[in-house]
Amino acid sequence: MNESTLNNLRSLNWKGSIPIILTLAPTSLSSPTMPPPQHHLISRLSYLHISLREAILRLYKFAAPSMSIKSSSALTDIDDGGGDGGGRGEEETTTTTTTTDDNDGEGRSVPQCWFEDDDTKTALRWQFFVGVLYDMILLKRKRQFDSDGGGGGVVETTVLPWKLRVHFTSYPSHQILSLGHGDVIKTVEKAYSNSLKQALFLQHGSSKIAMGMTKTNHELVWDAVVRSNFNVFSEASRDLWGSYEGLKMLPVRILVGGKPAVQRVL
Fold first, then answer.
1. What letter does residue 135 receive in the DSSP assignment?
2. Cβ distance 120 to 141 under 8 Å?
3. Considering only CA atoms, which of 7, 21, 110 is closest in space to residue 63?
4. Which residues contact 194 (CB under 8 A, 6 or more apart)?
5. Residue range 193-247, pLDDT digits in tens
6. DSSP code for 169
7. Omega before residue 161 within 30° of 0, cis
8. Does residue 189 surpass a pLDDT of 80?
9. 153, 165, 225, 263: which has the fewest C-beta neighbours closer than 10 Å?
10. Could you give phi then psi for residue 43, rounded to 5 degrees?
């Protein structure tokens, strides 16, 4: 496979998307009426808090203004391969996130929130790409179907549009990593940055490449992820991975159910 063919495949991969219907969890409702569902088509290679930012802000207007979460020092050295926990046993505190009155979503803080698969009632791990979360939910549905004996039917191989609920209360710190008390988007960005550094270290066997990234380079790579722009990502990360012909090691992260990720070099 030559470099041109590889880039075409990468480009097609970046174009993958999932239709989502996002609703406000009834337990978070503080308004007399339930807001209408939010329909979005989001990239598989993005994060829920990033791609659904505008929808979160719309639904937040109908939600309770605060949420009890477990504070966690893990956010100072977050590992996006972490397991279901995040609370680490710290004291429970109440965090209130406020937003400005800008007409659009730009410049507004994303409130503390978490997502749940409407069908399996699974709290979704925010540090993973949307596509990974969706594939894991499909696998969980199949396992549940098989454990129930199948019922004489056939499990759906796809569940589209994907129905999610957003919660602004009762953060499940015993199931997913805490978002901490800072800027939600910055926390997600830090998780991605740490994952990128881990991958570079595994591939090159050294932290030299990762430590050599400039601030501008970091910003370009992250902006490409936020905007789902493969061309920008390809240009900004050209010097990070090296050529396909010279590739000797491939960093891989394997997720098995709700267990912590296993990282290997192939």
1. H
2. yes
3. 110
4. 77, 78, 79, 80
5. 999 999 888 888 888 888 988 899 999 999 999 999 999 998 888 888 766 666 6
6. S
7. yes
8. yes
9. 153
10. -70, 145
